[in-house]
Amino acid sequence: MKRIVGGILLLGCLIVIGTDAELHAQSQTRNLNEFVLFGMRSVAVDGLFGQRGRRVQSGGAEIFAFGVNCERPRAGTGCGVTSLNDVILLDGAQIASDHVIVRSRGANLFQVFANSIDGGARALIRSPGTGPSGISPLALPLLGDVDGDGTASCNVISSSCAPDFGDLYAACGFPASFPACDITKPILVAPGVDCLIATDTIPGNGQCDLAPGTYGSLFVTDRGNLNLSGGVFTFCNLRLGNEAVVIPRAPSTLQVNGDVRIGNGSRVFSRRRRDLVMLVNGSSTVKVGSDVTLSAGVCAPEGVLKFGRNGFFFGQFVGDVVNIAGPTTLGFAPSFGG
Fold first, then answer.
1. C-alpha span between 84 and 108 (Å, rounded)
2. Using CA atoms, how far apart are residues 279 and 173, in angstroms rounded to an integer?
């Protein structure tokens, strides 16, 4: 057994958050609510990492997984692939992907569930399986037929991946009919002033205090402050400038019909684990700049998630394609499912 004492450890370019628990190998999880990163087609991690695991009842171990749902249809394609560069993971961290690429020497991993691996000699797998380089075999797809339409969550058609995104929409708790935004009600947030255009629930405090409702585009300018009063907010798209601050004062769900942009140095954080959930509809892009603090559950089933350097991301991050640049600290808190 290995005991990891709670704290923050700096390992080269890698920051690791530990928890005080005795940890050991677990069977491979297929529960979305135990994945800190989940991509339908691919996940790429460059220069990471830290996680804080979630305590589960099976032996009191900590499980936090990185998963890719689809099978790789052929060699040389990016679908069905997890790419790792400069990665050290704590006990309890699982990687689940049809194909894994280890791009740098010194990778230190706990469990790898995969059907093939490139660069396996570069990695130490501390809880090895019986396959090449210590990997364990993996049955795919990871997600079941969550939406009940009789179609697997990913198939291979004509040597290409064919995800059924409906299963991920259902697993993340999207409404059956995603609500439309209202382009006639844009929100503008500027520093030192109340909400512009929209009604402010606490006028006179030099911040935008927004009530739940259906709006148009949300634009928080550089150094603007937005407080969410709690409830469900629907936007056409969401754009934060540099050093913007968004805080939910009560549990809040953001339903976004378009792209999400979070500028450098911004802080979007909740004080409790599930206070902020972001559901991003359609083939959208979630782009997060450098030096950002983001504490939320983010699910964009058909979207591309791109995270910049030197960030602190705490929650769950789910999409079609998920890319994280480091050095970055990543913390895990379940936001979707049970």
1. 11
2. 9
Rounded CA-CA distance 158/56 in Å is 40
- Please state the φ and ψ torsions of residue 60, each to the nearest 5 degrees: 70, 20
Is 0.70 surpassed by the pTM of this model?
A: yes
The rounded distance, in Å, linking the Cα atoms of 218 and 260 is 10
12 contacts: CB under 8 Å, gap ≥ 6 = 86
Amino acid in the structure at residue 151 = T
- Alpha helices (H) in 114-215, listed in sequence order: 165-171
Amino acid at 243: E
How do the pLDDT tens digits run along the chain, 338 residues long? 232 222 232 233 333 343 333 345 688 999 999 999 999 999 999 876 444 433 332 233 456 899 999 999 999 999 999 999 988 888 888 999 999 999 988 889 999 999 999 999 999 999 999 999 999 999 999 999 999 999 999 999 999 999 999 999 999 999 999 999 999 999 999 999 999 988 899 999 999 999 999 999 999 999 999 999 999 999 999 999 999 999 999 999 999 999 999 999 999 987 766 789 999 999 999 999 999 999 999 999 999 999 999 999 999 999 999 999 878 888 888 888 65
Coil, helix or strand at residue 196: strand
Secondary structure of residue 332 in the 3-state scheme: strand
Q: Are 233 and 156 in contact (CB under 8 A)?
A: no
DSSP 140: S
Closest CA to 29 of 83, 66, 57: 66
Query: 273 exposed, middle or buried (CB, 10 Å; 0-12, 13-18, 19+)?
Result: middle
